[in-house]
């Protein structure tokens, strides 16, 4: 093996050991994905019906799947029946994740031709995330999705005439890593994951009530009956959005796509982490969409607005198929947020700032967050842990016409239960201004601040603009915050009388 190849293999092994794998972007933090131990993986269902409390999606058949979990191998008398190792040759000593990392270095034709070398290589080279990366890299968002990323790439060239011309019948291939990827893409959400609804729900409350009961104490709430005046609630279906957007391209993961192409992808996708349309410039690109809604009165005080065009990204249109969503994250720049559902259903799971969700591991400086590869994997392996916690998460299912308020600093996971369209905005009010300023002036602000090209100077710009536009506001808010802290430190009645002396006697309540 050449020195160059040894270096590649050594680096890949170090990446695997340190668990620094595929990255996904979620607002301000860099999120790293972590696979979970093999024993966490449930046995595969034999039919697309409920078995072992799990159900496959109606469009999925387990009989066509090529891979079985390692647990099934333990039930066999002949432990050598796994065809994985013989077909990999010298690569058999590598973990499955590392094999895929090596194959990810190959060009498409090399990957296609390697897939005919053996049944093992056929399985690994058919792993759809490999081809997803290639499509997104080479097609720049201009592709017609063909049901899988491998078929999508092959249909554009002559590759389908060789190794793309059909499926082999594979038996006796066992891999926890590859099986879990398929399983997470194929399972329905369990009903017990959707039953808890413990968020506070309110109808048409006043702004004063919202501030007093939710924004000031930093508590989430679901607001209903507030969007009837939004034209978007009636107009925003697939046909309307495609018509008004035309050939405009929207941000979808690392690429930009026309809505017509994205909706075609969303109709046929069956993968662990579906691409999510998440565009921060949608009102600039299609002004008609900006005219179809406006921020509710509860959220109209947005102090970042004084920065004009220099303010960080703050509003997004969000479109995604069933199973798409955002894994656990905290919203950028210590802002609060609201999320309004126009079409579909969204499952929310939220934890307060001081409670890190199970299976989530933020770095000490907050710059990176390690979490499971997919939302389904988190539910399979960690949702049950929440039942044993004293601090249970706040949960709900938000439907079309409802709005969720996400207070600053709260961890939250969101998954679409149906094809969904939503609008979300982040904002800064007087209630969280000091939190935002503290966040922006952190020593590692250049890593933490997001949505702007000038991360280092944002604190000075924002503070200066606030002092110029609202003189004395920062000082007043700081004084009130100190008074609140002192009040919280004030001893209770029982603490104050515990050491009181009456008539020369000291009363003790110990």
From TrEMBL:
Q: Which InterPro entries match?
A: Cupin_8 (IPR041667), F-box-like_dom_sf (IPR036047), F-box_dom (IPR001810), JmjC_dom (IPR003347), JMJD6_ArgDemeth/LysHydrox (IPR050910)
Record-level GO cellular component terms: nucleus
Membrane-spanning segments: none
One of its Pfam families is Cupin_8
| Region named Disordered | 16-43
Q: Which domain of life is it from?
A: Eukaryota
**Main site of residence?**
nucleus
List the keywords (alphabetical). Iron, Metal-binding, Nucleus, Oxidoreductase
What range(s) does the JmjC domain occupy? 275-444
GO molecular function annotations of the record: cis-regulatory region sequence-specific DNA binding; metal ion binding; oxidoreductase activity
**From start to end residue, where is composition biased (Basic residues)?**
16-25
What compartments host this protein?
Nucleus
PANTHER family assigned: ARGININE DEMETHYLASE AND LYSYL-HYDROXYLASE JMJD, JMJC DOMAIN-CONTAINING PROTEIN 8
Q: Which family is it part of?
A: Belongs to the JARID1 histone demethylase family.
Instruction: Return the protein name.
Output: F-box protein
Recorded source organism is Acorus calamus
């Amino acid at each position: 093996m050449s020195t160059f190849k040894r270096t590649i293999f050594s680096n890949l092994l170090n990446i695997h050991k340190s668990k620094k794998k595929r990255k996904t972007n979620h607002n301000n933090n860099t999120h790293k994905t972590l696979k979970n131990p093999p024993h966490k993986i449930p046995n595969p269902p034999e039919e697309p019906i409920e078995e072992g409390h799990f159900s496959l999606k109606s469009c999925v058949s387990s009989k066509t799947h090529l891979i079985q979990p390692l647990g099934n191998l333990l039930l066999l008398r002949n432990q050598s029946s796994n065809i994985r190792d013989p077909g990999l040759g010298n690569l058999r000593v590598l973990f499955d994740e590392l094999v895929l990392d090596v194959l990810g270095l190959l060009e498409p034709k090399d990957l296609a031709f390697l897939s005919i070398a053996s049944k093992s290589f056929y399985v690994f080279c058919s792993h759809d995330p490999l081809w997803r990366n290639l499509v997104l890299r080479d097609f720049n968002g201009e592709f017609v999705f063909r049901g899988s990323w491998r078929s999508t790439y092959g249909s554009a060239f002559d590759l389908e005439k060789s190794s793309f011309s059909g499926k082999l019948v594979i038996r006796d291939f066992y891999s926890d890593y590859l099986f879990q990827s398929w399983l997470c893409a194929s399972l329905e959400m369990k009903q017990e994951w959707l039953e808890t609804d413990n968020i506070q729900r309110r109808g048409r409350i006043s702004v004063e009530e919202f501030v007093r009961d939710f924004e000031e104490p930093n508590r989430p709430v679901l607001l209903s009956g507030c969007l009837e005046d939004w034209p978007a609630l009636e107009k925003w279906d697939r046909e309307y959005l495609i018509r008004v957007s035309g050939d405009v391209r929207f941000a979808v993961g690392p690429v930009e796509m026309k809505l017509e192409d994205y909706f075609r992808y969303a109709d046929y996708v069956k993968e662990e982490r579906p691409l999510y349309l998440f565009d921060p410039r949608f009102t600039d690109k299609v002004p008609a969409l900006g005219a179809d809604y406006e921020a509710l009165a509860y959220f109209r005080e947005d102090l970042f607005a004084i920065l004009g065009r220099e303010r960080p990204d703050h509003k997004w249109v969000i479109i995604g198929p069933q199973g798409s969503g955002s894994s656990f994250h905290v919203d950028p720049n210590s802002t609060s947020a609201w999320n309004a559902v126009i079409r579909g259903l969204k499952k929310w799971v939220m934890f307060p700032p001081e409670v890190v969700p199970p299976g989530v591991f933020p770095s000490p400086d907050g710059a990176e967050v390690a979490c499971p590869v997919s939302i389904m994997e988190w539910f399979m392996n960690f949702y049950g842990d929440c039942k044993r916690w004293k601090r249970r998460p706040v949960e709900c299912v938000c439907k079309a016409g409802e709005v969720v308020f996400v207070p600053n600093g709260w961890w939250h996971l969101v998954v679409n239960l149906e094809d969904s369209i939503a609008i979300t905005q982040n904002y800064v009010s007087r209630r969280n201004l000091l939190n935002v300023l503290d966040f922006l002036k952190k020593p590692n602000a250049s890593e933490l601040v997001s949505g702007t090209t000038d991360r280092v100077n944002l604190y000075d710009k924002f503070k200066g603009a606030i002092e110029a536009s609202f003189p004395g506001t920062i000082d007043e808010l700081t004084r009130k915050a100190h008074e609140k802290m002192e009040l919280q430190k004030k001893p209770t009645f029982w603490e104050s009388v515990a050491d009181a002396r009456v008539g020369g006697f000291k009363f003790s309540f110990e």
